[in-house]
Batch of 2 targets.
Target 1
Amino acid sequence: MIALRLHKSDAHLIRKVVIVRKIIIAGNWKLNKNIKEAVELVNDLKARCAGVTDVDIVVCPVFTALSKVAEALKGTNIGLGGQDLYWQDAGAFTGEVSAPLLKDAGCQYVIIGHSERRQFFGETNETVNNKIKAALAHGLIPIVCVGENLAERESGKTFAVVQDHVENSLKGFSAQETEKMIVAYEPVWAIGTGKTATPAQAQEVHSFIRKLLEKMHGQAVANAVRIQYGGSVKAENTRELLSQPDIDGALVGGASLKGDSFAGIVQGALAQ
Ligand code: PGA
């Protein structure tokens, strides 16, 4: 019988090898596509991504298209997410959509705290925190967005802003709750601008986020949480971004609006 003894440093290496975080590619369609267009796009994606099981694939259409898209996706390998939610389940909150309603429409995921919501709709870490609570309470997987804008990056505040977003948006959750979340690092200057963060720039922040999660909940949780990169992701840069050790997927805007470009990103993820 061979006795296997591990030095502390070896144990660390082995743990690194066995960490498996499944890549997740999510399309954030923003305010685009009516019901007919949305169903056409997912039918196209179903054909292009048939049989893909090594990568989680998610689309996030506008609220009005969710239930029809859910019907079209039934029994497929493509998941469905909302782009936002309100933290109350029901009541006098004109114009809002709640976690139970997203579940009812067929969602498994919900994007929370996207920079466009922080910028145009007054989203704060506090509202993001309330929304994450509601999502988890109803079994929705939150995709929580964090990231600095151009002025913040240029004035050297990237890490301070990301730390503020992570620590305060994810405040008060247990280790088990945190493990279920997906964090999306989206530098605002890279969103919709064609200016992707370099893989090294993104990795630097992703690794920083993982360290913050470790400080909050320990290594096992930090190792389990998937951290997506978002900001001008396209088929051509997917592989290189995902080859970074702490980049576990992508949140895709513009390039998720067409079947060939989104499927190209999924292929890039499979190839990495
Ligand atoms: P983009 O958007 O891919 O068009 O840059 C990403 C996002 O806002 O999630």
Target 2
Amino acid sequence: MSDIINTSSRASGQSVIGRDKDRVLSDDKPFEDMMARFDHAAELLGLDAGLYKVLRAPEKQIIVSIPINRDKGDVEVFTGYRVLYNTSRGPAKGGIRFDMRVTLDEVKALAAWMTWKCAVVNIPFGGAKGGVVCDPTALSLTELERITRRYTAALIDVIGPESDIPAPDVNTNERVMAWIMDTYSMHMRRSVTAVVTGKPIEMGGSLGRREATGRGCMIATREALQHLGMPVKGTRVAVQGFGNVGSVGADLMSKEGMTVIAISDNSAAIYNKKGVDITAALAWTREHRYLKGFPGGEPMGKNDLLTLDVDVLLPAAVENVINRNNAKDIKAKIICEGANGPTTAHADPILDEKGVFVIPDILANAGGVTVSYFEWVQNRGAYYWDEATVNERLARIIRNSFQDVLTLSTRHSVNMRTAAYMLAVDRVAAVHRLRGMYA
Ligand code: NAD
């Protein structure tokens, strides 16, 4: 099912031409969804028609075939993508995901997302994303390694510390980054640590990278509470997803004095009115992998967690969980978007109407790419920072970016998402204007 968003009802934007007036939005068209938000920001900024066209077009879209020998001897050919959306501000930056649901449309949307995210936090990167259509659970470790190395080899002229720097994403991790770094380094005949971020610490990864996204969520939430005049101590939080972002976010929020009353993962949701003991939940998942069976609270419906009566909701699992069906039932005063795209474009106006303060993903979860940037800087300088330095610099960037977005939001009477897009698009557009058009 799809809705029609009639852009003609928005603020006038005579300077922007050539756009669909009646764009059809559908939850399975991530690029359209993303671009509806870009369009809105472009219109409010009065972006000129030429730049509008330039910023709507991905710079480079690459499709590669990845043939490998399976362990049993037969040959299988996988498909991989890499999209460099915009590199005007610096080398492209963005993760690689291994998943059966990877499509070019999704990779394009995620690459655009990375462009805006890097611009919101003002780090000198453009945006990219990559993916391989595969089911990692059906592959052995050696098959995964062969896919990774062949994918890297296919992109050898694209990736590089000065051009395009991959990172982990869904179903890829430090080990996959180590294989990419090794393959690239073998081709270059020297060790090139800065070609990927999210590497193991032993080979040039940054201290604090693993916790960076959850830490950024906690800092952004603290800023939002302060802005709304709400206390940090005792603030009731519900967290969806107990992986890298959700578990660290929950842990740091509870260490700040907030009360995390519900957590969930793919297996279960747990509710405890007095506050879930996050240290115990972390210990449980380390041992049992999933939350299912965790004795520190009562089980509850996974979807019911989203509509709990809390102060802060941290969706940190998958996309589209807050949508036209449940947005009206959200009771949280603040949504901190730890996940990428947890809220659909259809849900935005419903949340606005209810007065929910949404910290948009391109700001809320930018802690990860910020410390990836620190990792790249440390690799290039061959000088490594202690964790306190990493955390202190991260906190400063998230706090400043939050305030930049808040200022725009107040000045233009728009929500935080639109303000974040306006800030990002304006920064990317400014560089295009300065650089001019190469022809
Ligand atoms: P992860 O794989 O470590 O964790 C995901 C968690 O979500 C798991 O606990 C999983 O069980 C849970 N989950 C999946 N479906 C669920 C459902 N329907 N209900 C409840 N829980 C569910 O992934 P992650 O790295 O924590 O990433 C989570 C989100 O944050 C993704 O959208 C990702 O793109 C985004 N993100 C991650 C980073 C990062 O640095 N890891 C940075 C920016 C954005």
